[in-house]
Amino acid sequence: MPHLASADALPSMRDADASLGINGLEGAGRGPFSLTVAPGSCVILSGASGAGKSLLLRMIADLDPNRGQVRLGQSPRESMSGPAWRRQVIYVAAESGWWGDDVLEHMTDVPAAQALLARLRLPADILGAPVSRLSTGERQRLALIRALVRRPRFLLLDEPTSALDAETTLAVEALLHDCKAQGLGLLIVSHNPAQAARLQDRHYRLGAAGLEAVPA
Ligand SMILES: Nc1ncnc2c1ncn2[C@@H]1O[C@H](COP(=O)(O)OP(=O)(O)OP(=O)(O)O)[C@@H](O)[C@H]1O
Questions:
Q1: Helix, strand or coil for residue 3?
Q2: Residue 50 C-alpha to ligand 1 middle, in angstroms?
Q3: What is the ipTM of this complex?
Q4: Is the beta carbon of 64 within 6 A of some atom in ligand 1?
């Protein structure tokens, strides 16, 4: 893993065969949606603005009202508390929310977060900065770091590079690629066909008729 600043900075692989299974998930008048994300794989979700992509991710994380089956391997989502579920399956919004003005207090593993800064082209002292002074792109990358250092099994990423320049976008993608190689499962909303082509193991488009597989 030559590109990693620290092997400890990435989620470790556990229960390698535990897929994220979504079956008949519906809510807010949308769905039912069914798809599977295997560990160590990347599923891209595209579709027109307003199609319901964020809603689907939020329903999987159980952040919006929904019904249907969601499982992690053999374990149904309802077998664990909401916070326990969202430690394993983390939703990262396109515009991240921060509950205080101190970046550091949001990081559950500061050394691991520190080890990822350079990879994402962030300054070494940024963890000491107030959230209110960060640029949109800095906040977006720090939200990804904040999620990664919690060592989830699946990440639901909503347009994770929407605020980034081309070179920084590639740096984020390289990190995600390495996380995937360590067993992390990814479901990523992207409007960028080139990014989809670089990252996807599978690709679905969300349209009026529901999820449609997009050929590679
Ligand atoms: N909790 C909710 N209950 C009912 N409707 C909702 C809820 N959340 C979002 N919506 C509506 O569902 C629609 C889809 O929103 P969503 O944010 O999922 O779209 P999107 O596909 O992610 O769009 P974009 O690409 O522009 O981000 C919108 O019209 C939105 O107002």
A1: coil
A2: 5
A3: 0.93
A4: yes
Q: Calculate how far, in angstroms, residue 198's C-alpha sits from the geometric centre of ligand 1.
A: 26
The CB of 49 under 6 Å from ligand 1? The reply is: yes
Contacts of 97 (CB under 8 A, 6+ apart): none
The C-alpha atoms of residue 9 and residue 92 are separated, in whole angstroms, by 18
Pairing of strands 67-72, 20-27: antiparallel
Tokens 């499982």 sit at which residue?
71
Domains of the chain plus CATH, in order, are: 7-213 (3.40.50.300)
pLDDT at 16: 57
Report d(CA 187, CA 179) in Å as an integer. Answer: 13
pLDDT, mean of each 10-residue run, the chain (216 residues):
39 65 96 96 96 97 97 95 96 93 95 97 96 96 98 97 97 98 97 95 95 92
For residues 196 and 11, what is the distance between their CA atoms, to the nearest angstrom? Answer: 23
pTM (two decimals): 0.92
Distance 181 CA to ligand 1 centre (A): 31
Look-up: residue for tokens 């391997």? 73
DSSP output for 95-159? S---SSSBGGGG-S-HHHHHHHHGGGT--TTGGGSBGGGS-HHHHHHHHHHHHHTT--SEEEEES
The reply to whether ligand 1 has any atom less than 6 angstroms from the CB of 53 is yes
Q: Which of 55, 62, 64 to mutate to test the pocket of ligand 1 (most atoms within 8 A of CB)?
A: 55
Nearest to 206 by CA among 66, 94, 46, 60: 46
